[in-house]
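The protein record minuted underneath.
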Amino acid sequence: MRLTWDEWAFLVLWIINLLISIVYLLVGIFLVVPTQNQKKREAGEEILHDGRQTYFLRAGVMVLCPVVGPLFFFLSYLLFKLLVWTHPDLEDVTFSKERVKTQLRADEERERDMIPLEEAISVNEKKDLRQVMLNTIRGDIHSSLSAIAMALNIEDTESSHYAASILSDALNTFRVNVQKMYKELDEEADNQVDVESEMLSYMDTVLCQQVFTDIEQRRMVGIMEQAAQSFYRKEPFTITPKQYEALCLRLLEIRDYEKTSLWCQRLTTQYPDELASYTCRLKLYFTQKNREAFFQTLNSLKASGVLVDSETLELIRVFS
Protein backbone atom coordinates (compact mmCIF):
# COMPACT_ATOMS: atom_id res chain seq x y z
CA MET A 1 0.00 0.00 0.00
CA ARG A 2 1.41 3.31 -1.10
CA LEU A 3 1.29 6.25 1.30
CA THR A 4 -0.17 9.54 0.31
CA TRP A 5 1.75 12.79 0.39
CA ASP A 6 0.05 13.87 3.66
CA GLU A 7 0.85 10.55 5.30
CA TRP A 8 4.50 10.79 4.21
CA ALA A 9 4.69 14.33 5.57
CA PHE A 10 3.22 13.26 8.90
CA LEU A 11 5.58 10.28 9.15
CA VAL A 12 8.63 12.44 8.43
CA LEU A 13 7.44 15.06 10.91
CA TRP A 14 6.84 12.40 13.56
CA ILE A 15 10.32 10.89 13.01
CA ILE A 16 11.95 14.34 13.31
CA ASN A 17 9.89 14.98 16.44
CA LEU A 18 10.98 11.61 17.85
CA LEU A 19 14.64 12.38 17.18
CA ILE A 20 14.28 15.79 18.89
CA SER A 21 12.65 14.12 21.89
CA ILE A 22 15.41 11.50 22.14
CA VAL A 23 18.16 14.14 21.86
CA TYR A 24 16.38 16.27 24.50
CA LEU A 25 16.13 13.25 26.82
CA LEU A 26 19.77 12.21 26.40
CA VAL A 27 21.12 15.72 26.85
CA GLY A 28 18.96 16.19 29.95
CA ILE A 29 19.79 12.96 31.80
CA PHE A 30 23.47 12.71 30.81
CA LEU A 31 24.54 16.36 30.69
CA VAL A 32 22.16 18.86 32.31
CA VAL A 33 21.17 16.89 35.43
CA PRO A 34 24.71 15.75 36.37
CA THR A 35 26.00 19.31 35.89
CA GLN A 36 23.28 20.77 38.14
CA ASN A 37 23.89 18.11 40.80
CA GLN A 38 27.62 18.80 40.75
CA LYS A 39 27.02 22.54 41.28
CA LYS A 40 24.73 21.81 44.24
CA ARG A 41 27.34 19.54 45.83
CA GLU A 42 30.01 22.21 45.46
CA ALA A 43 27.68 24.78 47.03
CA GLY A 44 26.89 22.42 49.92
CA GLU A 45 23.21 22.14 49.00
CA GLU A 46 21.20 18.98 49.55
CA ILE A 47 19.89 17.16 46.45
CA LEU A 48 16.27 16.51 47.26
CA HIS A 49 15.11 14.74 44.09
CA ASP A 50 16.46 13.28 40.85
CA GLY A 51 15.86 15.69 37.95
CA ARG A 52 16.04 12.88 35.40
CA GLN A 53 12.40 11.97 36.01
CA THR A 54 11.38 15.42 34.77
CA TYR A 55 13.15 14.85 31.44
CA PHE A 56 11.53 11.43 30.99
CA LEU A 57 8.08 12.95 31.52
CA ARG A 58 8.75 15.84 29.16
CA ALA A 59 10.15 13.52 26.49
CA GLY A 60 6.99 11.39 26.76
CA VAL A 61 4.81 14.46 26.27
CA MET A 62 6.88 15.54 23.26
CA VAL A 63 6.50 12.10 21.62
CA LEU A 64 2.74 11.95 22.25
CA CYS A 65 2.20 15.55 21.13
CA PRO A 66 4.33 16.10 18.01
CA VAL A 67 5.34 19.71 17.28
CA VAL A 68 3.03 21.06 20.01
CA GLY A 69 4.97 19.40 22.86
CA PRO A 70 8.47 20.56 21.84
CA LEU A 71 7.15 23.99 20.90
CA PHE A 72 5.47 24.39 24.30
CA PHE A 73 8.61 23.51 26.28
CA PHE A 74 10.79 25.68 24.03
CA LEU A 75 8.56 28.74 24.42
CA SER A 76 8.28 28.18 28.18
CA TYR A 77 12.07 28.07 28.48
CA LEU A 78 12.42 31.15 26.28
CA LEU A 79 9.85 33.10 28.32
CA PHE A 80 11.61 32.14 31.57
CA LYS A 81 14.96 33.34 30.26
CA LEU A 82 13.48 36.61 29.06
CA LEU A 83 12.05 37.29 32.51
CA VAL A 84 15.37 36.47 34.16
CA TRP A 85 17.37 38.64 31.77
CA THR A 86 15.00 41.58 32.15
CA HIS A 87 15.94 43.91 35.01
CA PRO A 88 12.84 45.30 36.76
CA ASP A 89 12.54 49.03 37.32
CA LEU A 90 12.65 49.50 41.10
CA GLU A 91 12.83 53.27 41.03
CA ASP A 92 9.36 53.71 42.52
CA VAL A 93 9.65 50.79 44.94
CA THR A 94 10.50 51.59 48.55
CA PHE A 95 11.34 49.15 51.30
CA SER A 96 10.29 50.36 54.71
CA LYS A 97 10.80 48.60 58.04
CA GLU A 98 7.90 50.47 59.61
CA ARG A 99 5.20 48.20 60.93
CA VAL A 100 1.92 48.24 59.06
CA LYS A 101 -1.19 47.70 61.12
CA THR A 102 -3.70 45.66 59.17
CA GLN A 103 -7.31 46.55 59.78
CA LEU A 104 -9.33 43.34 59.73
CA ARG A 105 -13.06 43.30 59.14
CA ALA A 106 -14.99 42.71 62.35
CA ASP A 107 -16.71 39.38 62.84
CA GLU A 108 -20.12 40.92 63.50
CA GLU A 109 -21.95 37.63 63.91
CA ARG A 110 -19.49 36.46 66.55
CA GLU A 111 -19.27 39.74 68.45
CA ARG A 112 -23.03 40.29 68.44
CA ASP A 113 -23.49 37.28 70.73
CA MET A 114 -20.36 37.88 72.81
CA ILE A 115 -20.68 38.47 76.55
CA PRO A 116 -17.95 38.71 79.21
CA LEU A 117 -16.68 35.34 80.41
CA GLU A 118 -17.26 36.30 84.06
CA GLU A 119 -20.92 37.05 83.30
CA ALA A 120 -21.38 33.76 81.49
CA ILE A 121 -19.89 31.90 84.47
CA SER A 122 -22.16 33.67 86.97
CA VAL A 123 -25.27 33.01 84.88
CA ASN A 124 -24.08 29.45 84.18
CA GLU A 125 -26.10 29.08 80.98
CA LYS A 126 -24.49 26.17 79.18
CA LYS A 127 -25.11 27.48 75.66
CA ASP A 128 -23.74 30.96 76.37
CA LEU A 129 -20.87 29.64 78.45
CA ARG A 130 -19.71 27.18 75.81
CA GLN A 131 -19.92 29.82 73.09
CA VAL A 132 -17.85 32.22 75.18
CA MET A 133 -15.26 29.53 75.85
CA LEU A 134 -14.98 28.78 72.13
CA ASN A 135 -14.61 32.48 71.35
CA THR A 136 -11.90 32.71 73.99
CA ILE A 137 -9.98 29.85 72.38
CA ARG A 138 -9.98 31.68 69.05
CA GLY A 139 -8.63 34.94 70.49
CA ASP A 140 -5.75 36.01 72.71
CA ILE A 141 -6.22 34.13 75.98
CA HIS A 142 -3.25 35.54 77.90
CA SER A 143 -5.29 38.43 79.29
CA SER A 144 -8.25 36.17 80.23
CA LEU A 145 -6.53 33.43 82.24
CA SER A 146 -7.97 34.55 85.57
CA ALA A 147 -11.50 34.44 84.15
CA ILE A 148 -10.83 31.05 82.58
CA ALA A 149 -9.63 29.75 85.96
CA MET A 150 -13.01 30.70 87.42
CA ALA A 151 -14.66 28.27 85.01
CA LEU A 152 -12.85 25.23 86.44
CA ASN A 153 -15.44 24.64 89.18
CA ILE A 154 -18.65 25.24 87.22
CA GLU A 155 -21.34 22.59 86.87
CA ASP A 156 -21.10 22.20 83.09
CA THR A 157 -18.42 19.52 82.67
CA GLU A 158 -17.80 20.32 79.01
CA SER A 159 -17.12 23.99 79.74
CA SER A 160 -14.90 23.13 82.70
CA HIS A 161 -12.99 20.74 80.43
CA TYR A 162 -12.50 23.55 77.91
CA ALA A 163 -11.26 25.81 80.69
CA ALA A 164 -8.86 23.19 82.09
CA SER A 165 -7.41 22.46 78.64
CA ILE A 166 -6.96 26.13 77.77
CA LEU A 167 -5.43 27.01 81.13
CA SER A 168 -3.09 24.02 81.15
CA ASP A 169 -1.78 24.70 77.65
CA ALA A 170 -1.33 28.42 78.31
CA LEU A 171 0.54 27.92 81.59
CA ASN A 172 2.77 25.21 80.12
CA THR A 173 3.64 27.49 77.22
CA PHE A 174 4.36 30.27 79.70
CA ARG A 175 6.66 28.04 81.77
CA VAL A 176 8.60 26.92 78.69
CA ASN A 177 9.02 30.48 77.42
CA VAL A 178 10.16 31.75 80.82
CA GLN A 179 12.68 28.93 81.15
CA LYS A 180 13.97 29.63 77.66
CA MET A 181 14.37 33.38 78.32
CA TYR A 182 15.97 32.71 81.71
CA LYS A 183 18.67 30.62 80.02
CA GLU A 184 19.24 33.38 77.49
CA LEU A 185 20.16 35.75 80.32
CA ASP A 186 23.47 33.95 80.81
CA GLU A 187 24.24 34.08 77.10
CA GLU A 188 23.44 37.78 76.76
CA ALA A 189 26.26 40.32 76.62
CA ASP A 190 26.84 42.78 79.48
CA ASN A 191 25.62 45.72 77.40
CA GLN A 192 22.40 44.04 76.23
CA VAL A 193 19.08 44.14 78.10
CA ASP A 194 16.63 42.95 75.47
CA VAL A 195 15.89 39.66 77.24
CA GLU A 196 15.38 41.33 80.62
CA SER A 197 12.98 43.90 79.18
CA GLU A 198 11.03 41.22 77.35
CA MET A 199 10.83 39.02 80.45
CA LEU A 200 9.45 41.80 82.66
CA SER A 201 6.69 42.66 80.21
CA TYR A 202 5.87 39.07 79.25
CA MET A 203 5.81 37.64 82.76
CA ASP A 204 3.67 40.46 84.15
CA THR A 205 0.84 39.75 81.69
CA VAL A 206 0.34 36.33 83.30
CA LEU A 207 1.56 36.79 86.88
CA CYS A 208 -0.76 39.77 87.45
CA GLN A 209 -3.73 37.39 87.04
CA GLN A 210 -2.50 35.09 89.86
CA VAL A 211 -3.46 31.81 88.20
CA PHE A 212 -0.56 29.83 89.65
CA THR A 213 -0.44 28.19 93.06
CA ASP A 214 1.12 30.26 95.85
CA ILE A 215 4.39 28.35 95.70
CA GLU A 216 4.75 28.60 91.93
CA GLN A 217 3.62 32.23 91.95
CA ARG A 218 6.43 33.02 94.39
CA ARG A 219 8.93 31.15 92.26
CA MET A 220 7.87 32.95 89.08
CA VAL A 221 7.94 36.36 90.76
CA GLY A 222 11.41 35.48 92.03
CA ILE A 223 12.55 34.80 88.46
CA MET A 224 10.99 38.09 87.38
CA GLU A 225 12.87 39.91 90.16
CA GLN A 226 16.15 38.26 89.11
CA ALA A 227 15.64 39.50 85.57
CA ALA A 228 14.94 42.98 86.93
CA GLN A 229 18.13 42.83 89.02
CA SER A 230 20.11 41.97 85.88
CA PHE A 231 18.35 44.81 84.07
CA TYR A 232 19.15 47.25 86.86
CA ARG A 233 22.78 46.15 86.99
CA LYS A 234 23.33 46.67 83.25
CA GLU A 235 21.14 49.61 82.21
CA PRO A 236 19.15 50.97 85.19
CA PHE A 237 18.11 54.16 83.43
CA THR A 238 16.35 52.28 80.64
CA ILE A 239 13.85 50.59 82.96
CA THR A 240 10.45 52.20 82.41
CA PRO A 241 8.09 53.30 85.22
CA LYS A 242 5.59 50.70 84.04
CA GLN A 243 8.15 47.92 84.45
CA TYR A 244 9.08 49.20 87.91
CA GLU A 245 5.43 49.34 88.91
CA ALA A 246 4.69 45.84 87.59
CA LEU A 247 7.56 44.36 89.60
CA CYS A 248 6.61 46.23 92.78
CA LEU A 249 3.00 45.04 92.58
CA ARG A 250 3.99 41.42 91.92
CA LEU A 251 6.38 41.46 94.88
CA LEU A 252 3.72 43.07 97.05
CA GLU A 253 1.22 40.35 96.13
CA ILE A 254 3.55 37.64 97.48
CA ARG A 255 4.16 39.83 100.58
CA ASP A 256 7.87 40.26 100.01
CA TYR A 257 7.90 43.68 101.65
CA GLU A 258 11.67 44.02 101.81
CA LYS A 259 12.20 43.71 98.04
CA THR A 260 9.06 45.73 97.35
CA SER A 261 10.45 48.58 99.44
CA LEU A 262 13.81 48.32 97.63
CA TRP A 263 12.25 48.60 94.16
CA CYS A 264 9.88 51.35 95.30
CA GLN A 265 12.90 53.37 96.43
CA ARG A 266 14.62 52.79 93.10
CA LEU A 267 11.47 53.83 91.26
CA THR A 268 11.13 56.99 93.35
CA THR A 269 14.80 57.88 92.89
CA GLN A 270 14.73 57.43 89.12
CA TYR A 271 11.21 58.73 88.41
CA PRO A 272 10.24 61.08 91.28
CA ASP A 273 7.59 62.86 89.22
CA GLU A 274 5.80 59.72 88.00
CA LEU A 275 2.45 58.70 89.51
CA ALA A 276 3.67 55.10 89.88
CA SER A 277 6.37 56.19 92.33
CA TYR A 278 3.62 57.39 94.69
CA THR A 279 0.98 54.70 94.15
CA CYS A 280 3.44 51.83 94.67
CA ARG A 281 4.57 53.28 98.00
CA LEU A 282 0.98 53.97 99.05
CA LYS A 283 -0.02 50.35 98.38
CA LEU A 284 3.05 49.09 100.22
CA TYR A 285 2.47 51.26 103.31
CA PHE A 286 -1.25 50.46 103.33
CA THR A 287 -0.53 46.71 103.23
CA GLN A 288 2.07 47.07 106.00
CA LYS A 289 -0.38 49.27 107.97
CA ASN A 290 2.32 51.94 108.20
CA ARG A 291 -0.05 54.82 108.85
CA GLU A 292 2.58 57.54 109.21
CA ALA A 293 4.44 56.72 105.99
CA PHE A 294 1.14 56.29 104.13
CA PHE A 295 -0.20 59.76 104.95
CA GLN A 296 3.20 61.35 104.45
CA THR A 297 3.35 59.93 100.92
CA LEU A 298 -0.27 60.88 100.28
CA ASN A 299 0.37 64.49 101.32
CA SER A 300 3.46 64.60 99.10
CA LEU A 301 1.34 63.42 96.19
CA LYS A 302 -1.30 66.10 96.81
CA ALA A 303 1.37 68.78 97.03
CA SER A 304 3.08 67.68 93.83
CA GLY A 305 1.99 68.54 90.30
CA VAL A 306 1.68 64.90 89.24
CA LEU A 307 -1.45 64.08 87.26
CA VAL A 308 -3.51 61.39 88.97
CA ASP A 309 -5.89 58.82 87.53
CA SER A 310 -9.44 58.13 88.71
CA GLU A 311 -8.40 55.36 91.10
CA THR A 312 -5.78 57.51 92.82
CA LEU A 313 -8.17 60.46 92.92
CA GLU A 314 -10.74 58.32 94.71
CA LEU A 315 -8.06 57.22 97.17
CA ILE A 316 -7.19 60.84 97.92
CA ARG A 317 -10.87 61.67 98.49
CA VAL A 318 -11.32 58.74 100.88
CA PHE A 319 -8.30 59.47 103.06
CA SER A 320 -8.42 63.27 102.96
